From TrEMBL:
This is Peptide-N(4)-(N-acetyl-beta-glucosaminyl)asparagine amidase. It comes from Helianthus annuus. Its EC number is 3.5.1.52. Pfam families: PNGaseA. It is an enzyme of class 3 (hydrolase). GO terms for molecular function: peptide-N4-(N-acetyl-beta-glucosaminyl)asparagine amidase activity. InterPro entries: PNGase_A, PNGaseA_N.
Length: 594
């Protein structure tokens, strides 16, 4: 398959501007209570300390009674006809006051069904809590430059019982010009440009695209700041693969047999298609990577519903045939494993749940017949439930495109080794996938041949000991994607390699006191042989602690280290140490460690 996680790639192209300030959550000497600031350790945006050239506050809403609550929708009209910009940032602010409940809320932001952000809520805190998520949404420029759209926000707790928290949410877009960061590998171009787009409605755009294969509202390629593979330029059009319902635009998938589909028609002028998948897992599958097989549950006559073993994969199909797969990064939400771990620093990805890119360009040969095709979503071995939707990013050329394509759909090997006696056992699962494609694209840019190969390796070892009261997980997900492009003369014009490794170790020893550890990592490396650029991101966390089985008292330590090297002399690293909920150290440097 060909899934690339943009959220992991994008940060590789930010350079660091200003040192990060220490997050002091110190007590004020007056009696006034100060809400606690929650944060995710991540790369600051280069725009964080710049005044936006324009901004629009779209929504202030107080979410109460969030148990299975419905979405809030407001009108959206771009402010961009009177604003110079090159980078767009979504600013999502939350203030929370509520009871000490360890539930997690899930939230999403969509414009006309195109998802821009998937996020989770932080823990309640004695004096209230607040957090602020900023996300670069420039790659969605084809949608945020439109008029007469709707912006929808969902924030809900998916609990059996009612949750009495009150969330004040504010959503804004901030637009910046003159942002100097090399987002492109191929050019050092940066700077501000105004987008002189014809003002069109999104519906008209889609209608035009489908009926006449025309995209009147095409973005000038050279006008928008460049990003990277597979978003070298923002798409010309984004079609939502989602479902409007009262409680969000996601498809709620309850088991492996449930297939949710959406019809799309791709016009023959399309020369590139990327499906961006958003996914989160809940209920019985919140900790899918620690679920025992059904045979274990059955043989021990346990009342568990969280079975089906510990391998999951989101499958994307075109007309029923497998086109790509994603094994998601195991994001731990703020109530997970030991809720005390995630106060006030949340786990990797909890505030900005990664999305995954599946390059469907190889399937254009199948898709470019001007007919409807059904894009399907399924969760292999899935339990209840998964929230899945996607955005189809399309790039359109003015001249007709001929795409000659050869592809090998994803192949798979899976091995299970389950051994157990009574409540103790060892469950091992190994999965290997590979896919490759060769495509020749003729466009106004000439003929280019691109070979894409991708390998995914998944290893999961789960041990149950001491009559099943001690659980130990060791898991690793690895993906390697290679994209090699040559011109008609056979000269290499680009060779990109992206490698990602997601290790995870968890132990949970339950008694009256539950001892817990989580060691998790996310590392991404990107290299471009032709441009000789190599960028590396490493993020590790190490949590140890315990919590009483009844009540919320306990002890927790959370140590995180984050480092990023842009390969061109720009570096950023941060270490954060939290003990018993106090940030005892938070250090940032911009020196490259040699
Ligand atoms: C404490 O709070 C008061 C009142 O809100 C404020 O004026 C003061 O600056 C705060 N002091 C510190 C050290 O944050
Ligand atoms: C803090 O509380 C004490 C006792 O409740 C009160 O006497 C004092 O004036 C308060 N201080 C401030 C700055 O509000
Ligand atoms: C809540 O506020 C009180 C009074 O200012 C303070 O003593 C306490 O430490 C605060 N709690 C947290 C978690 O910040
Ligand atoms: C949201 O609240 C802020 C400050 O309270 C206000 O300035 C802004 O106009 C409000 N926005 C909307 C869309 O109501
Ligand atoms: C909260 O919403 C749920 C479901 O919509 C409803 O059953 C419940 O009565 C509501 N609770 C309150 C306190 O309004
Ligand atoms: C939103 O747009 C619709 C359709 O254009 C319009 O009927 C409605 O009044 C608008 N709502 C607000 C709050 O402006
Ligand atoms: C909320 O939804 C979940 C999942 O669909 C369901 O299990 C739960 O009973 C619902 N809660 C309420 C209060 O309706
Ligand atoms: C949330 O907003 C409501 C008004 O909508 C306000 O009364 C309340 O004080 C706000 N809460 C916080 C924590 O800002
Ligand atoms: C947006 O909606 C308004 C009011 O319905 C309409 O006057 C305007 O022409 C629309 N703009 C576009 C670009 O469709
Ligand atoms: C294609 O799908 C659209 C939307 O689902 C539908 O309205 C249209 O009738 C379909 N066209 C054909 C030829 O099936
Ligand atoms: C948790 O750790 C403590 C201290 O190491 C130990 O005494 C206790 O037995 C452990 N509890 C369990 C359930 O393993
Ligand atoms: C995590 O922290 C614990 C205790 O501080 C330490 O013993 C362990 O070696 C650390 N593990 C990793 C992978 O850093």
């Amino acid at each position: 398959m060909n899934a690339v996680n943009l959220l992991l790639i994008l940060p590789l192209f930010f350079t660091i501007t200003l040192p990060h300030s220490v997050n002091s959550v110190k007590q004020n000497s007056s009696n006034e209570t100060i809400p606690q600031h929650f944060f995710e350790v991540t790369l600051p945006l280069p725009t964080d300390n710049i005044t936006p050239s324009c901004s629009v506050n779209l929504l202030n809403h107080t979410f109460t009674n969030t148990t299975n609550s419905s979405s809030v929708t407001v009108n959206y009209t771009t402010p961009l006809d009177k604003c110079h910009w090159s980078v767009a940032v979504l600013d999502f602010k939350v203030k929370y006051n509520g009871e000490q409940d360890t539930s997690n809320g899930i939230a999403g932001v969509w414009i006309n069904g195109v998802e821009l952000l998937r996020t989770t809520t932080a823990q309640p805190s004695e004096n209230g809590s607040f957090w602020n998520i900023r996300k670069d949404v420039s790659k969605y420029s084809s949608i945020i430059t439109h008029h007469n759209l709707t912006l929808s926000v969902v924030l809900q707790n998916l609990m059996k019982h009612d949750v009495n928290g009150v969330y004040n949410v504010s959503v804004s877009f901030l637009f910046y010009s003159d942002v100097k960061f090399p987002l492109s590998l191929h050019s050092g171009e940066s700077g501000s440009h105004s987008l002189n787009r014809k003002l069109m409605s999104f519906e008209n755009d889609i209608k035009n695209y489908i009926k006449n294969c025309e995209n009147e509202d095409k973005l000038g390629f050279d006008r928008v700041i460049k990003s990277t593979y597979p978003y070298d330029t923002p798409a010309d059009l984004i079609i939502p693969l989602s479902e409007a319902s009262d409680d969000g635009f996601w498809f709620k998938i309850h088991d492996e047999s449930e297939i949710r589909t959406k019809n799309v028609r791709i016009c023959p002028k399309t020369y590139k298609a990327v499906l961006e998948l958003y996914v989160s897992f809940h209920g019985d599958d919140e900790f899918w990577y620690m679920n025992p097989p059904d045979s274990y549950i059955k043989s021990n006559d346990l009342p568990f519903t969280n079975g089906k073993g510990s391998y999951r994969e989101v499958l994307v199909t075109i007309d029923g045939k497998l086109a790509g797969t994603v094994i998601p990064f195991p994001v731990i939400y703020s109530g997970g494993i030991n809720p005390l771990f995630w106060k006030p620093v949340v786990s990797i990805g909890a505030f900005d749940i990664p999305s995954y890119d599946i390059d469907l360009t190889s399937y254009l040969g199948l898709l470019l017949d001007n007919r409807n095709h059904s894009i399907g979503f399924q969760v292999a071995d899935g339990g209840s439930f998964w929230l899945v939707d996607a955005n189809m990013h399309l790039w359109i050329d003015d001249t007709n495109v001929q795409a000659i394509v050869e592809y090998e759909p994803p192949s798979m090997e899976i091995e299970h080794d389950y051994e157990f006696e009574g409540l103790d056992g060892t469950f091992e699962t190994e999965v290997e996938r590979s896919m490759s494609s060769i495509r020749m694209i003729q466009s106004s840019k000439g003929i280019l041949k691109t070979k894409v190969t991708e390998e995914i390796k998944f290893k999961n070892k789960l041990k149950f000991k001491d009559d099943g009261t001690r659980k130990e997980l060791e898991q690793k997900i690895k993906t390697k994607t290679k994209v090699k492009t040559t011109d008609t003369k056979g000269h290499s014009v680009g060779e990109i390699v992206i490698e990602k490794t997601y290790p995870l170790k968890i132990t949970i020893a339950s008694g009256s006191r539950v001892n817990t550890t989580v060691v998790q990592g996310r590392s991404v490396s990107f290299s471009d042989e032709v441009a000789s650029i190599s960028r590396v991101l490493n993020h590790d966390l190490n949590c140890t602690g315990w919590i009483m089985a009844k009540g919320n008292s306990g002890f927790a330590e959370n140590h995180q280290s984050y480092s990023y090297d842009d390969g061109e002399g720009g570096c950023y690293s941060r270490t954060v140490d939290v003990v018993k909920g106090d940030v005892i150290a938070d250090e940032t440097t911009s020196n490259c460690v040699k």
